[in-house]
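Data deposition worksheet. Section B asks for the primary sequence of the deposited chain exactly as it was used as input, without tags or linkers unless they were present during the calculation. Section C holds the resulting structure in token form. Section D is free text for depositor observations; keep each observation to a single sentence. Incomplete worksheets are returned to the depositor.
Section A, Depositor: J.P.
Section B:
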Amino acid sequence: MKTGLIFDMDGTVWDSSANVALSWAEQVKKSGYCRPDITQKDIMGVMGLTMNRIADILFGDLGIEERMKLLQDCCEYENSYLRIHGGNLYPELENTLAKLAEDNDLFIVSNCQSGYIEAFLDYYGFWKYFKDIECYGNNHFEKGDNISLIVKRNRLQKAYYIGDIQGDYDATMKAGINFIHAAYGFGTINCEVPRLEQFSELPSLLKKID
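Section C:
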């Protein structure tokens, strides 16, 4: 049985924050709001959170129905924007994925909206590397529950989650699998865990810790 490698998205396989910010700023204006532009810093500050929390933080001055509608519009436009413009992949990402897929089954679990992972896979033609994906937008499950869902759905006997922020680690512990820190990403972890200084180190790190 192959090892399952389950990847986070933002801060782990790519950084889409610049183009996400551009798309959201455009959509907010299209929706008729006169507000300060959403910036890359704003987006980086909420990446990894569930969509309802992002709406609370970025559009908290609006009523709940209005903020969730604006969030939905931004997310839908973001997906179409990323299918055209992509994001910034971490160095040697595709070469490393291809190498990993020879001996492991690869998956993605993210707190993103429906269609976000698909936009990433469509733009770069990466469907061939991944066996299954899941996200908050599909079922409103917390990340730990979606990691567990991937493990159960694919009958994984051994699995690692690779993520960059404390919430990723906490979700992985809830799911009861192993964690690897993408230390080049957006966050830190408050305990000692295997860590990657760059994505391309993952095959060699797995050999050390398996």
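Section D:
The first helix runs from residue 17 to 30.
The mean pLDDT is 95.
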